């Protein structure tokens, strides 16, 4: 498996600029040392990094945890973190459908409560 550390460095550098972040802030967010981040950003030392390090840096840069690992290996970002884009879309469709059902139930419940209140008011008014 080829590893493209230059692509990782470019991605980190561009994302830092996009977010307006300094390495110190990224270190705080990701809990990765500034020296390690500097090595990654400038591609100064190519060595094996744990996937946890790349995951933490990805998260610190407001990306999904597997983003930099995908950049490193050249795998499509539609498979970030081992989850295919189709699976995510399918899950979101299911959530959307369930939300529609819940909204329908809430509307019905609201209508039922409204009817109960009107009935109760009518009975109280009739008793006066």
UniProtKB/TrEMBL annotation:
Coiled coil: 92-119
Residues covered by region (Disordered): 41-62
Alphabetic keyword roster: Coiled coil
Protein name (Swiss-Prot/TrEMBL): XRE family transcriptional regulator
């Amino acid at each position: 498996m080829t590893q493209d550390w230059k692509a990782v460095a470019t991605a980190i550098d561009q994302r830092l600029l996009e977010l307006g972040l300094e390495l110190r802030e990224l270190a705080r967010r990701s809990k990765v040392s500034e020296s390690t981040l500097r090595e990654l950003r400038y591609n100064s030392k190519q060595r094996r990094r744990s996937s946890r390090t790349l995951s933490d840096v990805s998260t610190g840069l407001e990306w999904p945890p597997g983003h930099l690992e995908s950049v490193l290996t050249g795998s499509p970002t539609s498979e970030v973190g081992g989850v295919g884009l189709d699976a995510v879309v399918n899950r979101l469709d299911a959530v959307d459908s369930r939300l529609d059902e819940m909204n329908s139930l809430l509307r019905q419940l609201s209508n039922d409560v409204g009817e109960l209140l009107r009935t109760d008011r009518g009975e109280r008014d009739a008793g006066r």
